[in-house]
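Tokens in:
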């Protein structure tokens, strides 16, 4: 499977996870009048999920450090 297609599939899955995590039913679970470290739980949840999504996107879109190791060079035949 080509790397670009795999990357697109991972981004689509991450989008679906993000939509589910930031949708009403889960947001409602955290909309309590409580503080954690002086921050409302709802705000902490939203910004934590948001930052985790950004980190995951960065990891998916990151280019490999050694692209020559990812693909093998084409074999050349020498005739004698």
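Residues out:
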């Amino acid at each position: 499977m080509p790397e670009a297609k795999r990357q697109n599939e991972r981004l689509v899955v991450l989008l679906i996870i993000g939509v589910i995590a930031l949708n009403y039913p889960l947001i409602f679970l955290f909309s309590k009048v409580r503080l954690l470290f002086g921050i409302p739980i709802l705000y902490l949840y939203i910004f934590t999920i948001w930052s985790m999504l950004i980190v995951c996107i960065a990891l998916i879109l990151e280019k490999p450090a050694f692209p020559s190791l990812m693909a093998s060079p084409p074999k050349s035949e020498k005739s004698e």
